Automatic annotation (TrEMBL):
<dbReference type="InterPro" id="IPR039126">
    <property type="entry name" value="GGACT"/>
</dbReference>
<feature type="domain" description="Gamma-glutamylcyclotransferase AIG2-like">
    <location>
        <begin position="12"/>
        <end position="128"/>
    </location>
</feature>
<dbReference type="InterPro" id="IPR013024">
    <property type="entry name" value="GGCT-like"/>
</dbReference>
<dbReference type="Pfam" id="PF06094">
    <property type="entry name" value="GGACT"/>
</dbReference>
<protein>
    <recommendedName>
        <fullName>Gamma-glutamylcyclotransferase family protein</fullName>
    </recommendedName>
</protein>
<comment type="similarity">
    <text>Belongs to the gamma-glutamylcyclotransferase family.</text>
</comment>
<dbReference type="InterPro" id="IPR036568">
    <property type="entry name" value="GGCT-like_sf"/>
</dbReference>
<dbReference type="InterPro" id="IPR009288">
    <property type="entry name" value="AIG2-like_dom"/>
</dbReference>
Amino acid sequence: MGGKVNSIMYAFVYGTLKRGEPNHHWLTDTTNGFATFTGTGVIQSKYPLVIASRYNIPFLVDKEGTGKNVHGEIYEIDEQMLASLDVLEEYPKLYTRREVPILLTGDSNDSGLVKQAWTYFLTDFKPELLTLPHLDSYLSNGSHNLPYVASEDDLADANDI
């Protein structure tokens, strides 16, 4: 009695963390915490999803009402995984994170339901970023011909974004 019960949390991933993408291993590495794929979804509000920086990083720009309804994947996660994702996403230095409503899509029984999921947004950006093509879905090897470039460098340089 009196023990802490972990609440169920969800993360919405739209870029390199999706299945088949270069950073998906973060979600499958149990040393980072618990994560299980629960389905696909789309952000209910429109946001610009752009590819930028010398590393061709997909950024979800925090400019609600501009862009497209972005498609991605939903994962059930624990607090340890959220903390690990914070490290990868350089939160709060590079990204901000907040829960947003995600409409579940796909073939699951949950299709059509809405879940609140943690999502990472780029808040400190140059206005020119909004002039880049807005995507509704990201693939590293997509037709945009801007494959993701993995790097150990500190990417949290606003001058590079």
